[in-house]
Design goal:
The protein is an alpha+beta fold. The protein is globular and about 50 Å long. The protein starts with 5 loop residues before the first helix and ends in an 11-residue tail after the last helix.
């Protein structure tokens, strides 16, 4: 059954973003937040203060996060944009503490991903309210002509992207589109979508999880590594990625080993693509996107 109207599909192809969609009921949302609380107890600190690897790919070692990556209400929409054979490539917690200056400068997710064709779509799930006041995402339409902009890793203070990646070309910022989300809703944005988010000026924690989905026919362009991905719908008839299994239990040794292995491959891929984009020799990346 079709979920999107033709008008919505056309809007996504023209603008590079689409919002909002309902995903989680209240029980699912509260279970996810409870899972995050257990994870942070295990870490002994908030995700934002832990080693950067714990901010990414939680679906590899946390069954509740894996359930989000396989959620039918999300995948049904994603399928209409990239087809029925779907891999999850990576994912990232985007958490802004209450009354926090944390923000994201204008950037494109695909800059350091190195995927061809650039058909990745990110489903950004709000586990708590992501209002304008809480620093919701804002996007600029690419007007049907997506392209890559030049970025630099600037180490910006208070950047939610820890390396502080930002676009360094001139942008027409006159018409940004805000995408506020109620708890349990999600938005979609394209590999080349130009987006940012502001500080959290509210008294509640803004908790989001970005899930990066690709069609199975997409391939990595880095020469030195075959990254890992997880099949979440359909079939993989291409073999461009090393497929990894879902977790069986929280914090168990096999799931943590898979997470360590896959995140290591991601860092190697990221370092090569970053060096290619910046025109520098490849080095081991200290930061994740």
């Amino acid at each position: 059954m079709k979920v999107l109207t033709q008008q919505q599909v056309d809007a996504y192809r023209r603008d590079g973003f689409l919002s909002p969609f309902d995903a989680l009921d209240e029980d699912e949302r509260l279970r996810s937040l409870a899972g995050l609380e257990r994870f942070e107890r295990w870490l002994g600190k908030p995700v934002n203060q832990a080693e950067v690897r714990w901010r990414t790919m939680p679906y590899l070692h946390l069954p509740w996060a894996n359930a989000l990556a396989r959620h039918p209400r999300i995948l049904d929409v994603v399928e209409e944009l990239i087809g029925p054979d779907i891999l999850i490539w990576t994912s990232t917690f985007f958490i802004k503490e209450a009354n926090s200056p944390t923000y994201a400068a204008w950037h494109q997710d695909g800059t350091y991903f190195g995927l061809e064709p650039p058909e990745l779509v990110t489903a950004w799930i709000a586990l708590t309210a992501a209002s304008r006041e809480a620093g919701c995402m804002e996007c600029l339409s690419f007007d049907g002509a997506p392209r890559q902009y030049q970025h630099r890793t600037l180490g910006l203070e208070n950047s939610i992207n820890r390396a502080g990646q930002t676009i360094v070309e001139p942008l027409d910022e006159r018409t940004p589109v805000a995408m506020p989300l109620a708890p349990g809703q999600f938005s979609l944005h394209h590999y080349w979508s130009v987006h940012r988010s502001g500080a959290n000026r509210t008294g509640h924690r803004r908790v989001g999880l970005g899930l990066n989905f690709i069609p199975a026919h997409a391939r990595p362009t880095a020469s030195g590594v075959k990254p890992a991905a997880m099949l979440v719908r359909g079939e993989d008839r291409h073999g461009h990625f090393e497929l990894v299994p879902p977790p069986q239990a929280e914090f168990d040794a096999p799931g943590l080993a898979v997470h360590e292995y896959a995140s290591g491959l991601y860092r190697r891929n990221y370092a090569e693509i970053e060096a290619r984009h910046d025109g520098k020799p490849a080095q081991a990346s200290r930061q994740l996107a």
